[in-house]
Design goal:
7-stranded mixed β-sheet; alpha+beta; 21% strand; 17 helices; single chain
Length: 542
């Protein structure tokens, strides 16, 4: 590796024994002999206009791609799954329930003001407060932070959350029970601190470029809605010595064809995703620039389980059984995706999970059973099932929706009317229950099945299907308390078995991430969650 200058904070940590050379953070690592371009600027398509850049108001990679470049959390998870220190230099715990984090000396916001343990306490209280209405309000409860469940349900106030500042540089988090994936969960972007002074002063307008302050490698320089967002290097960042890219531009191009065209024209360095119908040709003609990475993510169609006829599990299960998911994965997509019969993943967090029995049936047997279930629910030739299928605007989503609706029509005589909306509008429809069936996907927040399964718990802020099954919630409670992966896997299997019968959502396929990446972009390394960070990249001379 090419030696890098270490900043004064890194030197201080090494001298104090709080950070060993072996635990140096994952950042831009430029191989020896690499010639860097004079202009260290990156343009990456981000797929859509973000709903917000407030970490407490968002819920998808569209926003988190940018937030993760501009904010640091206490820790991060490296591509190999190990935990690395970020704003926290070190930590210790008692009985795996009382965790104490020691912040790095001298860390500041991008305006130079100190980041304190009190800022983190305030931020987490804001995240969980019902007043904020965060899509991730339930996340601290899923981590089993003391009182988080009651606060999210409005039974207790946010200031009772089990997190406190022992002093400016020491944070204590108390859990109601040991949580095996606690440190990995801690890396989620919803838990990055935000500046209380700024938010109290400017309210929702704090994310405007003229007010914005950040804690990560980049700060917001420009935001032209539906055109571009620009981040520039944050000179106050504690690990600024390891940042190479000076300027990053995020584009909100949701058309995959336009994304590829602008990439070919030299306007984009990293294309967000590849069009299904161009993938084979791009692989053939630009193979060296095509990147296909596995990803812990599942594409599914979610039901509004409070709305007839989708309040009947027989109808939901019938629609699941009638899909030939292998055709969707292999023919409609054909980029390495796998047919999905689980909401989580077959292999995740050291656990192997099994699909429902009907997943292994011949397609003809599944269709026959689906017809029988629909007939029992009162639907058939004389009373056909008809509903709206909602998806957010994208060529891929449209192709999949057309294939799915065609299968339902052919196999069951069901009429699915296709509707598309822009991303932000669709999210609003989901959270207000204004849909029949909606396309959605879940990218793992951490390497454990709970990141998928918690979304169907009663009262969870991501449970937009409004699925309610106390036995399901009980299985997840037992899983969280499990002391080893075998026991945890037993309860996750119970939860997946219930989803296989109740089907609040139809899993369609498990993801891969596809990108076009210019040969001069170094350090492009997507992690298992599908994220890749500008601070880890550099531009080679070309």
């Amino acid at each position: 590796m090419k030696p890098q200058k270490r900043n004064h904070i890194t030197r201080a940590l090494l001298a104090a024994g709080l950070l060993s050379s072996a635990s140096m953070v994952w950042a831009a690592q430029v191989p020896e002999g690499t010639q860097l371009a004079d202009k260290q600027e990156l343009v990456r398509n981000n797929g859509n206009e973000p709903a917000s850049l407030d970490p407490h108001k968002v819920e998808s990679d569209v926003e988190y791609n940018i937030i993760s470049d501009m904010f640091d959390g206490l820790v991060a998870v490296k591509p190999d799954g190990t935990i690395e220190p970020r704003l926290a230099a070190s930590w210790d715990n008692k009985d795996n329930t009382v965790w104490t984090f020691h912040l790095r000396p001298g860390i500041t916001w991008s305006d130079g003001s100190a980041i304190t343990a009190q800022d983190i306490v305030w931020s987490w209280q804001r995240l969980i407060s019902p007043k904020t209405a965060s899509p991730y309000a339930s996340y601290p409860a899923n981590m089993h932070i003391v009182n988080a469940d009651d606060i999210a349900l409005g039974k207790k106030t946010a200031d009772t959350l089990g997190v406190k500042a022992l002093d400016d540089n020491t944070l204590q988090v108390t859990l109601s029970q040991p949580t095996a994936s606690f440190l990995a969960m801690l890396a989620h972007p919803s838990l990055v601190p935000v500046d209380p002074v700024l938010i109290k002063r400017f309210g929702d307008k704090w994310t405007l470029p003229e007010h914005f302050v950040s804690s990560g490698a980049y700060k917001l320089s420009q935001w032209v809605v539906n055109e571009r967002i620009i981040g520039v290097r944050n000179e106050k960042y504690w690990d600024n010595a390891h940042t190479v890219i000076e300027k990053v531009t995020y584009l909100p191009i949701h058309s995959e064809a336009a994304d590829v065209n602008r990439y070919k024209a030299g306007e984009i360095d990293i294309a967000y995703t590849l069009p299904i119908n161009q993938f084979a040709m791009l692989k053939k003609t630009m193979g060296d620039e095509v990147d296909v990475s596995p990803q812990l993510a599942t594409y599914y169609y979610e039901f509004n389980t409070t709305k007839a006829p989708f309040n009947d599990a027989r109808v939901r299960r019938a629609l699941n059984m009638a899909l030939d998911k292998n055709i969707i994965a292999d023919k409609v997509l054909g980029q390495g995706q796998r047919a999905a019969w689980l909401i989580s993943q077959p292999e995740i967090g050291g656990v192997t999970l099994h699909a429902p029995d009907y997943a292994s049936w011949p397609q003809e047997k599944r269709i026959a059973e689906a017809k029988k279930l629909l007939a029992e629910a009162g639907f058939g030739e004389n009373h056909p099932l008809s509903f709206n299928l909602l998806y957010n605007t994208s060529e891929s989503h449209q192709r999949i929706a057309i294939a799915v609706s065609s299968m339902w029509k052919k196999n069951l005589g069901v009429e699915a009317k296709l509707q598309n909306q822009e991303w932000k509008t669709m999210l609003d429809a989901m959270h207000t229950g204004n849909f029949d069936v909606v396309r959605y996907a879940w990218i793992a927040d951490y390497d454990d099945a709970a990141t998928f399964l918690n979304n169907f718990r009663i009262g969870d802020s991501q449970n937009t299907s409004q699925y309610k099954n106390p036995a399901y919630d009980e299985a997840l409670r037992h899983a969280a308390q499990a002391t080893d992966s075998a026991e945890r896997g037993k309860y996750y299997q119970q939860a997946e078995d219930m989803l296989g019968q109740d089907v609040p959502a139809i899993p369609v396929y498990h993801y891969v991430r596809t990108h076009l990446v210019k040969p001069w972009v170094g350090g492009f390394t997507p992690d298992r969650l599908g994220y890749y960070y500008t601070k880890d990249m550099y531009i080679k001379k070309h």
